[in-house]
Amino acid sequence: MVRFDKEASAKIFQENNQRSRPNTVDLHGLYVTEAEFYFERAVQQVRERGESSLRVIVGKGNHSDDNIPKIKPAIQTLGKNLGMTVNVDPTNDGCLIVTKFNS
Known about the structure:
The chain has helices at residues 2-17, 32-49, 71-81, and strands at residues 24-26, 53-57, 85-88, 95-99. The mean pLDDT is 89. The protein has three helices and four strands; from the N terminus they run H-E-H-E-H-E-E. Strand 3 (85-88) and strand 4 form a beta hairpin. It is an alpha+beta fold and 103 residues long. The protein has one domain: Ribosomal Protein S8, Chain: A, domain 1 (2-Layer Sandwich).
């Protein structure tokens, strides 16, 4: 069961990100723990490329229970705990802009 869940999340992630720019990661449609895993991986890749920001698509919570976002607050907290600056994209509240990548 765990293996199937990992395979499913990998397929969702791959499908959502196949046309994404290198400094963008799309996490919507994943469970929170899966989104956190892929976020940390994307942060590492951004650091390795020396880029200054990462656009994180988290969604607005429209498909969550009571339309309350789950991924967005989790990624905001994780990013801040990792010492990054995390802001809501002023043009799209379903996206976060992450900056200040410490090595």
